[in-house]
Amino acid sequence: MTNNTLVVGNTAATSTAMTMPVLSGSLESYIQSVREIPVLKKSEERELAVKLRDNDDLEAARQLIMHNLRFVIKVARGYSGYGLPLADLVQEGNVGLMKAVKRFDPTVNVRLVSFAVHWIRAEIHEFILKNWKIVKVATTKAQRKLFFNLRSKKKRLAWMNDAEVKDIANDLGVTSKDVLEMEKRMSGQDIGFDLSTDDDDDSAYSPNQYLQSDVEDPSDAIETADWESHTQVLFKNAMSTLDDRSKDILASRWLVEEKATLQDLAAKYEVSAERIRQIESNAIEKLKSSVEAA
């Protein structure tokens, strides 16, 4: 939207060409630029919304967005307590405003800001949840409600007592367990899994020093899988050098769950059990020689 010249409405008061403010430099300069953009009258807003709906008029969409940017800043400032840059919150709120403009119905007798506030907040909420901590603190609907309401519900900075937990749980329609869990998540701090290379304090420790993993080391797992695959190829190639009877005897004796006895195979091939043993022994020796040669 950079360098787009916009003409607002058809009235004399709004006929001056203006460019869309871009949030790419100083936040203060951006806010000052937005404040200089006049607020649309209800009739002007509806006229632009009808043009957008009926003609897909992108110019009308840009004007609706531009003249409501000041409202995004106001909403974004309400989330400054989460420790994230206001510029990022405003940027995400602008995305919500754009989505709202696209879905705005001019036949409903409400101003755009009344409809857009829900979209603006939704985008800001999603951004905060993704960036407030490394690990996402809220995934379910109940957890999201707790995350954005727990601070305002708390009456003091200290940990809540049982009565406070129950009151908040009742107000928000969640369990006391959910309230305590969210308070713990919001009070915790992100720490690195490994110690920093600059940390030479012998008393310091990180999760990788006390969290036990039952998972095999990835490098060992890859090496084992590679070796097994290689061995299977060698064995398959070695087996292909044997005659059919030797293959069947080895498979029946070693490669099936219910292994055949020497007597079973002797009866099958109408030879003695000793002969079956000799064939088996010779086949094994051929396999070893073939694998070693490979």
UniProtKB/TrEMBL annotation:
InterPro entries tied to this protein: RNA_pol_sigma-70_dom, RNA_pol_sigma70, RNA_pol_sigma70_r1_2, RNA_pol_sigma70_r2, RNA_pol_sigma70_r4, RNA_pol_sigma_r2, RNA_pol_sigma_r3/r4-like, RNA_pol_sigma_RpoH_proteobac
CDD domains reported in the protein's UniProt record: Sigma70_r4 (cd06171)
UniProt KW Cytoplasm keyword: yes
Domain RNA polymerase sigma-70, chain residue ranges per copy: 88-101, 261-287
GO molecular function: DNA binding; sigma factor activity
Intracellular or extracellular location(s): Cytoplasm
Coiled coil: none
Annotated GO biological process: DNA-templated transcription initiation; response to heat
CC terms in the record's Gene Ontology section: cytoplasm
Motif (Interaction with polymerase core subunit RpoC): 88-91
Main location: cytoplasm
Keywords assigned by UniProt, alphabetized: Cytoplasm, DNA-binding, Sigma factor, Stress response, Transcription, Transcription regulation
DNA-binding region: 262-281
Residues covered by region (Sigma-70 factor domain-2): 64-133
Function: Sigma factors are initiation factors that promote the attachment of RNA polymerase to specific initiation sites and are then released. This sigma factor is involved in regulation of expression of heat shock genes.
Family in the record: Belongs to the sigma-70 factor family. RpoH subfamily.
Subunit text: Interacts with the RNA polymerase core enzyme.
Alphabetical list of PANTHER family matching this protein: RNA POLYMERASE SIGMA FACTOR RPOH, SIGMA FACTOR RPOH HEAT SHOCK RELATED
HAMAP family linked: Sigma70_RpoH
Name the record gives this protein: RNA polymerase sigma factor RpoH
Organism of provenance: Cocleimonas flava
